[in-house]
Structures are given as C-alpha cells and as structure tokens.
Amino acid sequence: MVFLPILLQVFAPKPSERPNTPAAKKLKDDISEETKQRRLAEIIKEHHVLSHESNKLDLGKTFEILVEGYSKKSDDFMFGRNSENKVIIFPKKDFVKGQYINVRVIDCTSATLMGEIV
Q1: Running DSSP on this structure, what letter comes out for residue 83?
Q2: Domain presence at residue 26
Q3: Which of 2, 30, 99, 118 has the most CB atoms around its CB within 10 Å?
Q4: Domain span including residue 67
C-alpha cells in the first residue's frame, strides 16, 4: 500500500518574473501567457480531483467540529471545521459560534463536507 500526501489547500498563482532576482537578470521569461494559464488550470483541476477523493474518504465518519457560523449559501445551514481544518456544513439548530458538536459526514464536494448532527 502506498500513501501519498494530499494538499487540502493550494495557493497556485500564475508563474511570473520576480524583479531584482538573479533569475530575472539572467533568464528571459520565454513561457507564453497561454502556457502559463494552461499549466495553472491543470494544477487546479488536479487539486480538485485529489481534494474530492480525500473528502470521499470521510463519508460516514463522525467528527467533532467547532461551530463557526452560518453557511454562505443558506441561513438554514451552519458550518464549522474539524481537526483537519475541513469545512463541514450541517443543518441549523440552536448552536452558537464557538460551540463543539458532533457531525457525521453524509455527502461531499471537492471543497466541502456536508453532515448531519449526531
């Protein structure tokens, strides 16, 4: 069995020249904007695939999460984070920000876990 690390968050800006560095002084930036955009799109696409695979491994698991507030998309849901810093959306109840609750993961996307209160 081989275990590969999965990055949960990626900051992937388009490559650009760094002024006043030895590379900027000695090397020409000969990569086209189209190639830079394509490479960045490939990295982002692969990250989404790997993140979704990672999140699918959490289906059926129960996590203690810290309630952070209301969901961005609906006031009928709240969100919190587990110990792995993954966002979990769950139905709104009488929870308050800063409270710890247990949530079982029932669905996911590449960016978010959806859960039910247990």
Answers
A1: T
A2: no
A3: 99
A4: 31-118
